[in-house]
Amino acid sequence: MPDPASSLTLLAIAFAAASGLPSLAMRRGSRKGQVVATSGMLLAAVLGIAGALLALLQPGSIRALPALPWPAGNLPGMRIDPLSAFFLVPVFLVGGMSALYGSSYRPAVRNPRTARRMSVFLGTLVAGMAVLVVSSDAFSFILGWEAMALSAFFLIGIDDESAEARSAGLVYLLATHAGTLVLFALFALWRTVTGSFAFDAAAGAALGPATRGALFLLALLVFSLKAGAMPLHFWLPGAHAAAPSHVSALLSGVVLKMGIYGLMRFTFMLGEPAPSWGWAVLAVGAASSVLGVAFAMGQHDLKRLLAYHSVENIGIILMGFGLGLIGVSSGRGLVAVLGMGAALLHVWNHAIFKSLLFLGAGSVVSRTGTRSPDRLGGLAAAMPWTAGFFLVGSIAIAGLPPLNGFMSEFLLYLAAFVGSRYPGAVDSGPLLVAAALATTGALALACFVKVYGAIFLGAPRTTQRPGLRESPPSMLVPMGILAMLCIAIGVLPGIWAPLLDRVIRSLPLGTGVDRSGLMSLAPVSALAFGSLVFAAVVTLAFLGLSFLVGRRVRRGQGTWDCGYAKPGPRMQYGASSFAASIVGLFSWALRPRFHIPRIEGSFPGATGMHSHVDDASLDRMVIPFMRKAESRIQWFRRFQQGQTQMYVLYVLVTLLALLCTLVPFGDMLADLVAGR
Amino acid sequence: MTDFLNAIIVIVMILNLFALGTSRIASVIRIVAVQGALLGVVPLLLHWGGGGAPSAAVLLAAGAAIALKGLAIPAIMRRSLRSAAIKREVEPLVGFLPSVLLGAAGTALALVFSGRMGMAASQPGTLIVPASMATVLVGFIILTTRWKAISQVIGYLVLENGIYLFGMLLVEAIPFVVEMGALLDLFVGVFVISIITNHINEAFSSMDTRDLVTLKE
Known about the structure:
The complex is a heterodimer. Chain A is built from 27 helices and 4 strands. By secondary structure, chain A is mainly α. In chain A, the strands form 2 sheets. Chain A has a two-stranded antiparallel sheet with strand order 1-2. In chain A, strands 3-4 form a two-stranded antiparallel ribbon. Chain B is mostly helical. Chain B is globular.
């Protein structure tokens, strides 16, 4: 009889995987099918979160699930340890919220062609991720990994009538398959050196340093590709922009985290980390966070912008993880605990606030039909709830108190400053983290001032659809729940600190670790109280100022007014204008391209200009490389004749070549020479 | 019994050469049907030669093989031939006489080499190994040199006959299910190809597989 935590988790996986199946039996565009699928996903979410929290709260760190009857033989199958349980929570939480949101965002009645596909693959995506997280051998890991990767592909390309979705899906598919190839290499190497496909930390710790280094390098490659760290993020912006918004929420909030999970799981399976590992992760994290937010600044598409912020937040998580690893390898327990704590907490936080932001973006996009902040404006009046929830998400992602983003970023600052107090060579790493985090935080704040200001404040820049209404409750409720969680994690550290402690205690962080828990190691309670006070003061000050200023503002025009006697809404300070100075500052990395028309003649016709920021790795590295590779291997095309006879001939030639290896030519020659 | 078996196998090899040298597709279908039916008898002979009477499963497998390869598949192909209204393979890549010579040379080489490959030990004294290699080779020659879609099907059938003959080396070891599965595969394969053949005929108004090149990317 398995314990309740494992039973609940297994049940949740089964419900999620099967949630879309009933709709297959119903007719196209059946509302009932979608209702069944959504309730299945919600049920899975409730059961899964309950199971994961039970596994986290109850003593006894590892619980075995009944192993799958696997043809490959004696494999341990699956088990839930605190790290898996910690990652299960966002999987099921965001999965459930996305499904609920999707039922109104893409109602089956209006999307009859794709609704059943959507239900099926949303379910398998969540189930695949849950299987991945609880797997304890390479086979079930790959099973979950591929279920996740392929379901995500079908969801990204679900609007397959649009060329954008098709090409984004293709780029994603190529990237994920490349990652899977590396994953195969990783597992093959693991199997060769440990003699088993099972994830066994003791076996990993017994390996030589060179082998462990090679394993770590492969793991870093494949998992940073999935997590979307710079410069392997090239599949991410297109995929997040093309997918329906609730799928983007799931992709950005949870699928990327599977890369983080894999990296953590494998690194801790390899014994004591070498100092260079932490540095490598730290460098990738710092580059991702600063460049991610800089690229976000240059985007004109709301969802692409949010996607680049995912790169940024993955960078923050990686910086925490890298700092934790440096702490472990240099025997500084406090740095290890704080760094890991920051990384893990930010995994939850980013899952919550980024899915909140994507759902908010979806709400805006579905009502206005555009993803460009430069065409929007003044939506706060028509969509007050969406505006409020988006504001909560924006504050959280900018890392401002009193919300959850502040908590994890504060832990990371704390880890950096504690780390830099030690004398010795590792000083610069923690300081690098602090500098990168400060830059990132400032840019993220600027970026969300731009987005929020352009979309929700001011006056509409283009004519809005008449009768623009707020989104229906089934879209607002998931956003509300996520926003509440942002606030709860920010102001009530008592609810997450014990859970986080249990995960950190289960990790092999070396011997010098203070196990007394985050609540006593870091001043989180005082911080929460302080940030509440800060928030209250800011709110009061804002109310007071608006009361004072609001009465004195002069409405009216000056006599000449610099020629702007009648400013229209289209002349408002726009998102791109706001970002221009920062984009200029980062032009060495962003390389913004401006297309400015030449204006000639006395009476020039109507014209326009536009600018865009191409992706650093997709547009400047991957695609040029592929083109070059294509021209190099052009000769291989000659073998693709299109004629079945030629293909059969290839088979025959191969077969004959293989047969020749059977013929003992050497013996025959010897016989001939001997004259027999 | 071995003599009788070898006689059948020699007929199979001669039928190979006939299949290579005939331009009338209906005749080639008939030749391959006879070849398939003859091969269906081989496992029964092997069992009698081994002493005991064949089991019900072996009888059933042999019966199914004869019925499918000798009757059902040729019938399907003749039907498809009728609806496509063609009679001959014209202008193959390699002419009929050269391909007969090629097949004969392949058969001779197979006979020379097979004795030295150390595989014939399980059925000593029979021609199973060289005949199967020769038949596979002939199947490939048909597949690579003929243009009509229906000749391709014939090529696959001859190829499969060769593989089937090779499987006779392991006649005790192959489970009944595998054998029936292979037969079913073949049947479904021919069935599908015959349907495709008609579609090719309708889409390109000929059964020449060279036209399929336009489908290449």
